[in-house]
Amino acid sequence: MLVITVFALDWVTAVSVGSLEYRLHVLVAIATVVLNVLCLPLQLEQQFSGRPKEYVAVSLAGVFFSSLCSLILVVIFEVGSIGPLVGSLLGQAVSYSLLMYSGKERLVGGEVDWQIGMQLLKHGMPMLPSFVFLFVIQSGVRWPLEWRHGMEQVGLYSLGTSLGSVMALFTTGVVTAWMPWVMAQSSAWKESRNLVARRFTQYFMVGSFLVLLFFCFAQPALHLLTSHEFYDAWRVVGLVAASNFMVAVFSLVLPPVYMAKKVPLILISQGISAAVAVACMYYFLVFGILGAAFSVFLASVVLVVVQLFVNFKLTNIEPIPLDFYRLGIFLALLIFCCGATFFLDAENFFHFSVRALGLLSISGCLLLAMIPGRAVLLERVRELASRR
Fold first, then answer.
1. Going by C-beta distance under 8 Å and a sequence separation of 6 or more, which residues neighbour residue 49?
2. What integer pLDDT is reported at residue 112 of this predicted model?
3. Is 344 left (phi over 0), alpha (psi -120 to 50) or beta?
4. Cα–Cα distance for residue pair 41/384, rounded to 1 Å
5. Quick count: other Cβ atoms within 10 Å of Cβ 154?
6. What is the reported pLDDT for 294?
7. What is d(CA 211, CA 164) in angstroms, rounded to the nearest whole number?
8. What pTM was estimated for this model as a whole?
């Protein structure tokens, strides 16, 4: 990947960015992706061998070092936009080094197993289009947005995306732990799938409430963090957080496909979702960054809905018995509350605070009333609070 980029850097830069003055930026960004790819199997080795503390420690060290380097390069050395990219590269290099060091006793030595290698290729090759579909769904909107509204709107959209993507701090941890936990239940799936459904409902309701927080506090956050010309970016923050959440939900409904050993079926939902994303871009980009964010969100919803249909119709594994009635009622209220945030005005701080607090209170009360196993969850919260 890196060699191809070095020899075709001008072409890659022209296609991805449109200006050759950003050749170095593109090279550093791709080098970061290369290191990230090399880290993945090492992270999975930690994950599946049951070493969560090491996994978290290495991840936090990489994030801390990346943030520190970015801050030093931008604030002290004033290198401009290349600073955060170099900071990310250095942070990823630290993560890779720590992963190799922590796993040196288990990873060094041994024999090459060509049979496993062929199995990896067999199961992995059909997934190559998956990355293309996900790229179209999550990032493909930037180019049409630039063509129709200019680079300034892309900048606003990118700012809102950066803030909304903070949702990944919650979703990544859950998704990372979800697949090993569910797959461990596969030997007794008939008995354990109800427990999986209950955990899914709990995650979905808590995650949806967190999405509402992004909708509610996007305006004051942009007021505090940016100057006036960037305020409009708040319109996409909540939708971006919701899109990230739905992509995570998609990962949570995948276990039946893996149990049935029909992983390529994922391409059906991803392909249909990518097509929906392209269609939405055509029709909704007239509304600028709001239309762009809504296109990504709608495609993410379609991704989950189609995958649930695939699980039910095309696998021989009993699906996760989700409580659609409970989820539907809660989701309907959340959609109403999220939509209402677009009518709040952070310029009037008192009115904004009262109304936002009302929306959060109503949703929070419904969450506590409807979430399954709330007594056990509340007891665990009390235990954690008493320890502290």
1. 106
2. 82
3. beta
4. 33
5. 18
6. 96
7. 9
8. 0.81
